[in-house]
Design brief:
single chain, mainly beta, 3 helices, globular
């Protein structure tokens, strides 16, 4: 099959349309979304290393027509970010009291069962219920995922 994509045409295409930010989903709204492919990230801040995993969470707003009308779209994408406590080997620290956010997400997915095999990647494709919160940055409001629960 031949692709009709032409890089030069794409890069030289012009428009008079302005990009418009979608209105935020109201804080406190409860939605159900599907976890997408996880992406790990790591870095260092103030001399300490950190590790996190992020999941895109896609919400089909056909089940929420009032929200779809408000934000003028049929799907919204959220990011579920989880900062992780790791051990000296760079792997997840499974000690008591560690990784509370990961525990809550696993419980919401029914995946926090002792003796049952678990991996971060196994969370992909599963539904999760969550409450929308907001974060302000440089005068703009961004949707975030607050509390999570079983879908």
């Amino acid at each position: 099959m031949t692709s009709i994509f032409d890089s030069a045409t794409f890069l030289d295409a012009t428009t008079t349309e302005a990009l418009v930010k979608r209105p935020p989903v109201p804080a406190g709204t409860e939605l159900i979304g599907i976890l997408g492919e996880p992406k790990g990230r790591a870095g260092e801040k103030d001399g300490k290393s950190w590790t996190a995993v992020d999941f895109p969470v896609e919400v089909d707003l056909s089940a929420y027509p009032d929200i779809a009308k408000l934000v003028n779209t049929q799907t919204v994408l959220f990011k579920l970010g989880i900062m992780l406590d790791t051990n000296e080997g760079g792997m997840i620290d499974w000690s008591t009291g560690k990784n509370g956010r990961l525990r809550k997400v696993r419980e919401a997915l029914g995946m926090n069962v002792a003796g049952q095999p678990f991996s971060i990647r196994a969370m992909q494709g599963r539904p999760i219920r969550f409450v929308v919160t907001h974060r302000e940055y440089e005068g703009e409001i961004f949707d975030e995922i607050g509390a999570v629960a079983k879908a």
